[in-house]
Amino acid sequence: MELELKRPGFFPAGGGHFTGPAKTQHSLVKACLDGKTPWCCVCRIMLHKVDVFVVTYQQVDYCDFRVALSDRKSPLSLKRLPEIFVSSKVMSSAVSKAAKGGRLRKIGSRLYTRNLTEAAEQIVRRNWHALLKDYFPDALISDRTALENRPAADGSVFIISSGTRTVALPGITFRPRKGRPPLDNDFPFLGDIRLCSAPRAWLENMRRSRKRGAEVARTLSKAELEERLDGLLRQGGEAALNRLRDDARDVSQKLDMAEEFRSLDELIGTFLGTRKARLETAVGQARKRGLPYDPDRLVLFQSLFAELRARAPVTRPSRSMVDSAKTNLAFFESYFSISVRQEHSPGSSARFCPEIHRLHSVGGFRFSQSGFASHQCVHGCERGGR
Fold first, then answer.
1. What whole-number distance in Å separates Cα of residue 115 and Cα of residue 284?
2. What tens digit of pLDDT does each residue of 274-311 get?
3. Which of 162, 249, 309, 385 would be a feasible disulfide site paired with 321, CB 3.0-4.6 Å?
4. Is residue 376 part of a domain?
């Protein structure tokens, strides 16, 4: 390992030079700058690259140093490699030897994994973010992938990049296209990769795209956008849609997407009841009529109905009761029923049962207390005759 030290300010003896064996992870190297004064170098080396480098001299930190590593003296450590990685020229020789020795598995062009048992598709899908950084360092995740936040059903990941060549991997296909560079409000994702902001993603998905064979379309369909917009309205209310529209208006001016904004504005206005655009989905049409519903809860109720219908009802015969117990149980059942009606419309049921009204007035019972009294009565009946 060869270290060339450059001082940002004062540095004793005009700098220093040291040559020695390279080490991975945190290394502590000792030498002398002027032959008398010791100094320390702490660095973190991963795959022949230095991430952090600090020199301390007389309790003062000095930075801005360059490190040149020798491949011959820096053996590749398989344990420090990620689960899946793209080979480079620096490590190609060591990776080839490890693959021939059965310690690595090749699953694509320059693509290797330390996982020797799991299916290649599952490994790639689990690590597609890191692989995108290796194949397209300047990628901007866009189109339907920016809204869905996951690969499409066929494994497609749509991006904007300077590269235009499609990269097909087991379970994942990166599909780049030319486009406008990232804006300031596009989120940093991983490395230099960016993720389209929500307003930009909505504007891009307002463009219609065609399917090519078995491939999914690059943008979401109108029906998919309606369902997603209805979900946003249910979760965030009208304020969420108004905020999306305001932000999209600003982004459309920067990207020259006035037509896409008009389509989005029309769709949002229809969901808010101020426009009358044609809607395709059931949730959209119900929202347009002023009768919205939660499709997720509808699925749950349908599942509950199917489960209850498939099960035979359990018969629980009542135990024999004496006449006095039956009389008391009937009285409290009627009292509980009338108490519920009195709770919703006070005084409406009092004239139908004056005895119960007197008990309710004198006792000062509320609904919860009535339920407790009913429980006490039934509990007494169980002890007495049930």
1. 46
2. 998 899 999 999 999 999 999 999 899 999 999 988 88
3. 385
4. yes
